[in-house]
Every structure is written in C-alpha cells, then in structure tokens.
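Hey, resending since the last one bounced:
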Amino acid sequence: MSTAAKKRSKSRGRNRSSMDWVFSEPPSSLFPSREELVKLLFVVVIASSVAVAFRFTDGVLKRRHKPFCDSSESFLDLEPDSCEPCPDNGHCSNGELKCFHGYKKHGRRCLEDGSINQTAKELAEGLEHHVCDSYAQFLCGKAGQTWVPEADILNILNENKLKKRIDLKDGTFEFAKSKAMENIERSLETRSDIFGNKDFKCPDMSAELHKPLLCRTRQWMYKHLLHMLAVSALLIGLMKVLWRIKERRSLLTRAEELYEQVCEILEDNATMVKNSKSGDEKWVVASWLRDHLLLPRERKNAKLWKKVEELILEDSRISQYPKLIKGESKIVLEWQVEGSLGPKVGRKEALMNTEVDRHASTSSSHKQRPNIPYQL
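The structure tokens again:
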C-alpha cells in the first residue's frame, strides 16, 4: 500500500472516532446525584435564613437602642441618626418618653386613654344637664339660674357622686375635669366679667327641651290664647247653629205628627156624630185636644203646639172659631164632613202605633189618663 493511502485511512479513522465521542452518552460522574442536590439546596436555605435573621435583629437592636430626643432641645440642632424625635402628647427627657395625662404609652407613641375620655364626656353631659335644667326652671317661673358661675360648676365636679366613677390616682380626675370643662365651653354659651370669671348659659333651644311637659303645655296655651279663644268661639257658634237646626227639624217632625193626629180625631168625631144622628156637637175644644195629645214634657215647649196651630190654620178642612162653654170662651175645632175625602186607614193605624209607643216611653208613675170627651 502506498504512503498516500495510509494517510487517508488514518485521517478517516480519526474523524470517525471524534464523531462517535460527540454522539455517545455522557458519563455518570459528570452530573451530581439527587442526594447531593438536596444537600446543596438545604445549605442554601439555611444560609439565606441566617442572613435575613441577622439583618432583622441588627435593625431591631439599632432601633431599640436609639434614644428619644429631649423635648427641650431643637431637633434641627441634632444629627438625624443620633436620636428619635419625641412623639406628640408626650415629654422626652434623657432619651425616655413620658406621656401626658389622659394618654397611654403604646410602643413608642402616646395614644388617648379611651376610659378617661368617656368619663370626661359623662361629666360634661351631667354639667350640661344641670345648667339647662336650671335655666328651664327659671323659664317656667320657678327657682333657677340663667347664668351659672364657673365656681358652681367646679363644685358640682368635686361632689362625691361624680368622683365615685373616676379613678383618682395620677391626677386622672383633674385631667378628666379639665376635659369636661373644655367640652361644655363648646356646647354652652359663655361670658366673662372684668375679673376673668366665666359664666355658663344653656342655649334657648336646649332649655326648651328640658322644660317639664306641663310647663310647655301651659306656656303654649298662653302664647296661643287668642287663637284658642277664636277657635273655641267658632266651634261653640257652629255647635249652636247645628243644635238649632236639629231642634227645628225635630220640632217640625213632631208638629206634623200631632197635626196628623188632630186631623184623625176631628174626622173620626165628625163621622161618628153624623152617623149616630144623636144631635151631639161635631166640634172639639182645642185646649182639651192639646192636653190629650202632648206628653207632659212637651207641654213646656210652647213652640210645638204653636206650630201645630199654624198647620191647622192652613188646612181648609178644619174650622176654628171661639165658643162659650160654661161661661168661658174657648177655641174649638170642627171637621167639615162635607169636604172630607174619607178616612185614611193606613195613616190612622200608623199614627195610633206612634201614639202607643210615645205613651209607653213615659215614666211608670204617670198613669194613663182616660179619654177626654170631645164634646160637652
């Protein structure tokens, strides 16, 4: 074999070996195992946690040890990182924080004490009620004050019944009292004299609400007295008019009933005398007929029989004329038989039933009188 051929065969062998190495599987020792990966991840997590905890602890320690700036010093004169500004509602001295009365320390801040504020609110409400009640009593004409001095207000605050609800330690009562005074100064009217003494007065609208119901009712009546008199007079006048209308209607209805009874009696009497041919008189004395038909309580009402007489005069079937009876002149009524159209049976029965009902309604002591003779 020539030398050139040997070189070709060698180059081909080298190329084939390099290609086989590329496409062959990598050895198992090239990548870490699963156990090694878990260990590596565990080490990374622990290292990160330690770094975070160390950073957080370092920040907390630095913040805890950072003191408060003294309240008497200006913060502009100090370095920003040297101290922490003193919070509101507190006093700082030597790096320590003390909260004012009425405030409690929460962490590195001073927050309002809710129980003291509630107590101050109750005190203010009690004072306001006292001042408004005093003014309301004065407006109702009783013993009371329009302006209540500040000294009286303070005496009320110092009473035992108000102190029992307040914890007196650490000047709590004094703080609650000052807060209550601030509250009533906003809700009540105030004035000051030349010496600086304050007086308190309840607003008029609030004083009206504190008046007793009887006082408010009486004052309302006095204020609207003229209107009430006018309305009362109008109502009384209207009631009188309605009563008169009712009486007039009742009088007219009763007079018509009596008039119908008079007609029936006169007609029956005239027919009976005509049929009997006994020569008896056909007339009837008007006063006897009146006393026979009217109830005892109706005889006092002169207008009733007068109205009946007016209806009788308008009836052409009835003659009315004077007649001398036993030496005394009487007015008699006589039915004109010739002009009669005959008795009305239905009307007569209805009137008789009405008469029976009226006689039954009279008192038991009143005895039924015998029938009065229609003629002499």
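Residues 342-352, 361-376 have pLDDT under 50 and may be disordered.

Sorry for the duplicate.
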